[in-house]
Amino acid sequence: MTGVVVKYFPECLFKVFARPLTEQARHTWNVMTLLATMAFSFPAVAQDDFAGASSEYFVDRADSAKFVLIMSGPTVGEDNKSKFRQWAFSLHDILARDYGYGSESITLLHDQGHNSNEDQSAAARVDGPVNLAGITNAIETLQGQVKQGDQITIFLIGHGAGADEESKFNIVGPDITGTQFAEMLDPFSEQDIVIVNTTSASYGFSASLSSAGRVVISSTRSPSEKFDPIFSKYFIEALDQRNGDRDKNNRVSMLEAFNYAKVSVDQWYEEQGRLASEHAGLDDNGDALFSLNPTITDVDGRLAEIAYIDTLEDDGENLSDQALSLKAMMQEVERSVFILRGRKADFLEADYWRQLETLLVELAKTTGQFNDQISL
């Protein structure tokens, strides 16, 4: 059966892409070629309950929306203030410029809120302070915006402290514990959630947020890692200009961004001749146990692989409703290929290759229709 895929795959794609390629189609050609290669090269892995659960999470439908909450906490010292501000503002601008987010879908809580000394454009980005009232207001606003199937991504930048139930995120005023914040997120049981906690001593706080269907990323692996991490810098760099896009599908998954940042952090410490004081981890199966090297062949990494931060209208494409629908279909089929590849051990070999062939052909045809639509 593998021979059928190898023989038919190029013929189908060359017919679809015989016309001049749009940028989106070119990226899709790249990813389909890579997906076919990966289907051969990755080992079969039993998925247990993941196969059923994954079908419910992180599906980019034409009518779904994505929201981002960025919380950049207070600090002392001009260097740290400048660094946290730069990271928070850069993340905000990258999401707005490259990923299709508008002012209504990004909320930025920064330190004590608006600063009269900042220029007007900088002040316009900030929606409020990082205190309990500001966080509560942001969460309540999100509750009024989201619907079933929407996605919420939360970034924490700043300082953390404590361990286990006492783990905290430093905010203006009394700090907030992971347990408190987890309770605030309880109303979002019908939304997909990604949490990227880049603070020092982030592990305990992050573990409190672990839950089925969530992708939780922590910049540290234990409460003892108290020095300010640089993980945030490289995670944001992974999103900037899609630097972390390893499979060249013009999208950056949370697994790709995590791995990009982790490798970059390791390289930084090596270049500095220092022992690493931070070790990032990822949990996406709800067990609150973070993998330092998540992959699709491990217990963590499978959900993060299909969790993306981009919206359907990224890059200011101004797509028609029909084009948006086709783009959503393309991404859903690509997602199905990833899930099928991870479930290879669940199928007879012939059945696996037959299903893979069906998906790749469907992806090629849908991309051709999308290409026709945006050429009108």
Describe the fold and architecture.
- The protein is an alpha/beta fold and 376 residues long.
- The chain has helices at residues 2-16, 23-41, 50-54, 78-98, 120-125, 132-145, 178-184, 203-208, 231-239, 254-272, 321-342, 349-374, and strands at residues 66-72, 106-110, 151-157, 160-161, 168-169, 176-177, 192-197, 214-218, 281-283.
- The protein has 2 domains: 2-57 and 320-374; 66-306, 3-Layer(aba) Sandwich (Rossmann fold), CATH 3.40.50.
- The strands form 2 sheets. Strands 2-1-3-7-8-9 form a 6-stranded mixed sheet, sandwiched between helices. It has a 3-stranded antiparallel sheet with strand order 4-5-6.
- Strand 7 (192-197), helix 8 (203-208) and strand 8 form a beta-alpha-beta unit.
- Helix 1 (2-16) runs parallel beside helix 12 and helix 9 packs across helix 10 (254-272).
- It is globular.
Tell me the CATH topology of the largest domain. Rossmann fold
Number of domains: 2
**Class per helix and strand makeup:** alpha/beta
Poorly predicted regions are 1-21, 38-48
Range of helix content: 40-55%
Q: In CATH's first tier, which class of the largest domain applies?
A: Alpha Beta
Strand content: 5-15%
CATH architecture of the largest domain: 3-Layer(aba) Sandwich
Average pLDDT value? 85
